[in-house]
Design brief:
Layout: H1 3-13, E1 20-24, E2 30-33, H2 35-40, H3 53-56, E3 58-59, H4 66-75, E4 80-84, E5 90-100, E6 107-115, H5 118-122, H6 131-136, E7 140-145, E8 150-153, H7 155-161, H8 172-176, H9 184-195, E9 202-209, E10 215-227, E11 233-242, H10 244-266, E12 269-274, E13 280-283, H11 286-291, H12 303-306, H13 309-320, E14 325-332, E15 337-347, E16 353-362, H14 364-386, E17 390-395, E18 400-403, H15 405-411, H16 415-425, H17 430-437, E19 442-450, E20 453-466, E21 471-480, H18 482-499, E22 504-508, E23 514-517, H19 519-525, H20 529-532, H21 547-560, E24 562-570, E25 576-588, E26 591-601, H22 604-617, H23 627-644, E27 648-655, H24 658-665, H25 667-684, E28 690-695, E29 698-703, H26 711-719, E30 723-724, E31 730-731, E32 735-742, H27 749-759
Antiparallel strand pairs: 1-2, 1-6, 3-4, 4-5, 5-6, 7-8, 7-11, 9-10, 10-11, 12-13, 12-16, 14-15, 15-16, 17-18, 17-21, 19-20, 20-21, 22-23, 22-26, 24-25, 25-26, 27-29, 27-32, 28-29, 30-31
Helix pairs in contact: 24-25, 25-26
């Protein structure tokens, strides 16, 4: 302490009659004592430069603990009592006051001391065991005389452990036997450390058993109060405090805190705190984990500056009256991450609002969903408004709700007129009432007379429930179908014309599938319209043309848009007729939409001419190409082989037991067998292959595609089928099959045929 301070204290307090001391606030060393105080404590050597407050009196129960004195002096403004046991037991009343001379000087306590009126009434003797402390203290006092081994336990201590006064032996062992076995070594080490002078006091927490077998958590504090002539500790006084309830409460608080932290880590919410100016001071770590935004992006920012203008007003009003903030939304970070904050105001000890504290929630997905819904709603409104169909809505109370432009145009009105009309009438039409009473939609047509003539409309009505107002709406959608109805009339006229034309007419789509056929086409071919729709014109194939013929036909149609010629077609009953066919592509806006074919039957003279040509090139029994046509096709196949560099397979099929069949069953049966063999060969091969009758009991096959599988493999399964005659008799022909390939086994078609016959 500065000398100037001591002089100042002496001038202030030296003449006072009341005992008074000035002590340092940090170490509780007596810096100044007036004469009245020195006369009150005559046993103290006031010439010593270091006099502690503990040397003057021992706090409450005789325990000289500077920390507790400091707490009493710094926290209490009212007087408190202390006990001095240096010679006689006396009680003093101490009134503290804080003293600060200037900014650079240390802080002091000014203590006014006077003898308590309770000293003689309560403490008539000077018992060294502190009768006052024993009867009035809340905790248990013990006094251990090390020399004799005797320990005094206060009634409060015995009562704490469930013993009657003086029930147990006053020795160290009776206390040590109650200490929990897991704690006794630790307790003895702490006590021995203090007795050896290694610690200023003895202070430890441990578990101790009660008389009833229960267990308490206690804090045991003590210190040496007397030494023998050799400087060894001879007497220790201590105080045992029951802290069981405190530790249990502490455990519950810790458990609650851990549970709270677990909830905070596992939950989707996080915590935030602001100062009185709504500047964000802190956010929990869950904030970054939930939002992906760093805490530094939000700390130090004013909450109001982060809010949208629409929410700033409500937040400011809440802050003015210190009201809770509820679910305010804001976007943070460069990516505009959406969060919601809710919290309540905090107040300091004087009742002044010092900030807000609350929880935050990640609502980014929710906001994005809301925006998506709003976008869909907006797009739906735009689509409805621009839709060609007239759309209108009225409520079940007859009030106008919505109409798009087409609806207003249909009724030749505007929104105000419609609203006024429905507001005045408030009457629902009969169809509207029916829709409200039923879950089914209603579709009907109506005709409206206009200056342009009658207009046809298809009307759809259905019920719609408004979830926001628990109200039902009647939705009306009207589509102008005048053009459709006119086209239907025109279509019927066209169908009437087509049905009365003598020529057969066939219409196909782009995939050559039949979509329509007139009555003449149905009567000529014997097929009904249902049988033709969805099929291709190949249903009329007579078998006299290979696939290449039809491919060339359609190639010409695709290239030039038309084709004309005569074709042999087969009717539903199996008969074959020659027809003159004209195919034309139907163009709309430069794009092919359909193909139309006109079929006219040839004149008799033409039929005779074609019959003569057919007789020259086809076998009359099997309708297969004869030897002449076969040779012509073989030469053409060889020419294509040379150009395209692929092989041609020629296969000879000989019915080896044909003579036996003719002799056994007759030539009529033999002819039936040859027809069935021809049919089986065609059935086993593709349309790209040529099957011809080479002689009376020989057939030949020309193949240019799929040669990885031989003709023998293809036709052998069908040739092995038994032939059932008209009377039920079964005939099993016998065959020999030989194949050669051009040009691998010969470059001349005639040599290849000789090679096949030589192999037999």
């Amino acid at each position: 302490m500065l000398a100037s301070h001591r002089t100042l204290f002496d001038s202030l307090y030296g003449h006072l009659l009341n005992p008074l001391a000035v002590v340092g606030s940090k170490d509780l060393q007596v810096c100044y004592a007036n004469q009245a105080l020195k006369g009150l404590f005559k046993t103290i050597d006031w010439t010593s430069p270091h006099i502690s407050l503990a040397a003057m009196f021992e706090f409450d129960l005789g325990e000289a603990v500077n920390l507790e004195l400091l707490e009493r002096c710094s926290q209490q403004v009212e007087a408190f009592e202390c006990i001095n046991v240096s010679d006689t037991l006396r009680v003093f009343q101490v009134t503290p006051a804080q003293l600060k001379l200037d900014d650079d000087s240390p802080e002091y306590f000014v203590l006014q001391v006077q003898a308590s009126s309770r000293s003689t009434a309560i403490l008539p003797s000077s018992d060294s065991r502190l009768t006052y402390a024993l009867t009035e203290a809340c905790d248990g006092l013990w006094d251990w005389c090390i020399g004799t081994g005797e320990v005094f336990f206060s009634p409060k201590l015995d009562q704490m452990l469930g013993f009657d006064p003086e029930e147990r032996s006053p020795c160290f062992e009776s206390w040590a036997g109650l200490v929990h076995p897991d704690d006794i070594n630790r307790v003895q080490d702490a006590l021995g450390c203090h007795l050896r002078g290694d610690s200023e006091s003895y202070d430890i927490e441990y578990r101790i058993y009660t008389k009833q077998g229960g267990m308490k958590q206690v804090r045991d504090r003590g210190r040496i109060c007397r030494w023998d002539s050799e400087g060894n500790a001879s007497r220790v006084i201590g105080m045992l405090s029951d802290i069981t309830a405190y530790r249990e409460l502490e455990s519950e608080l810790r458990e609650t805190r851990d549970r709270f932290e677990d909830y905070a880590l596992c939950g989707s919410d996080w915590f935030w705190e602001t100062d009185q100016n709504l500047v964000i001071q802190d956010v929990s770590s869950q904030f970054t984990r939930q939002t992906g935004v760093g805490a530094e992006d939000i700390k130090g920012r004013n909450l109001l500056n982060l809010l949208r203008e629409s929410e700033q007003t409500s937040a400011i009003d809440a802050v003015k009256d210190s009201l809770p903030i509820r679910n305010i939304r804001l976007a943070i970070g460069q990516q505009k991450y959406w969060i919601a904050l809710s919290g309540r105001s905090m107040f300091d000890r004087s009742g002044v609002m010092c900030g807000y504290r609350g929880i935050g929630e990640n609502i980014h997905d929710q906001v994005m969903l809301e925006k998506t819904v709003q976008a869909y709603k907006h797009n739906a409104e735009v689509m409805m408004d621009r839709a060609p169909a007239a759309i209108g809505m009225i409520s079940e109370k007859g009030q106008f709700f919505y109409s798009n432009k087409a609806f207003l145009s249909l009724l030749r009105a505007d929104t105000n007129n419609l609203s006024e009309k429905y507001r005045n009438e408030k009457q629902l039409s009969k169809p509207d009432k029916q829709v409200l009473q039923s879950d089914e939609s209603m579709i009907f047509e109506m005709v409206m007379e206009t200056l342009d003539g009658p207009q046809f409309y298809s009307v759809l009505k259905f019920r719609l429930n408004r979830a926001d107002k628990n109200e039902r709406l009647v939705v009306t959608i009207a589509m102008d179908i005048t053009y459709t109805r006119q086209r239907e009339v025109d279509q019927k006229k066209i169908e009437m014309v087509l049905d009365n034309i003598a020529e057969g007419i066939l219409i196909t789509d782009l995939d050559h599938k039949i979509v329509s056929a007139n009555r003449s086409m149905q009567e000529t071919t014997g097929y009904t319209l249902d049988e033709l729709v969805g099929k291709t014109p190949s249903i009329f194939s007579s078998g006299r043309y290979d696939r290449g013929f039809y491919q060339e036909l359609w190639n010409e149609v695709h290239q030039s848009g038309k084709w004309r010629g005569d074709i042999w077609n087969r009717c539903r009953n199996g008969s074959v007729m020659r027809q003159h066919v004209s195919i034309q592509a139907i163009m709309v806006d430069g794009q092919v939409q359909h193909y139309i074919g006109i079929y006219s039957t040839a004149f008799q003279s033409g039929i005779r001419r074609d019959s003569e040509m057919f007789a020259q090139q086809y076998d009359p029994l099997t309708s297969l190409p004869n030897r002449m046509l076969f040779q012509d096709r073989l030469h053409m196949a060889c020419q294509r082989s040379r150009v395209r560099r692929h092989s041609v397979e020629i296969t000879l099929v000989h019915v080896s037991n044909m003579t036996t069949l003719n002799d056994g069953y007759g030539h009529t049966v033999g002819d039936q067998v040859l027809k069935r063999v021809a049919f089986h060969l065609q059935d086993g091969l593709s349309l790209d292959d040529t099957v011809a009758r080479y002689s009376s009991d020989e057939f030949v096959v020309i193949r240019e595609k799929g040669l990885e599988i031989s003709a023998d493999e293809l036709i052998r399964p069908v040739l092995d089928r038994p032939i059932v005659l008209g009377d039920g008799a079964r005939v099993v022909p016998e065959y020999t099959v030989q194949s050669v390939r051009y040009p691998d086994q010969g470059a001349n078609p005639h040599r290849l045929m000789r090679l096949l016959h030589n192999r037999e």
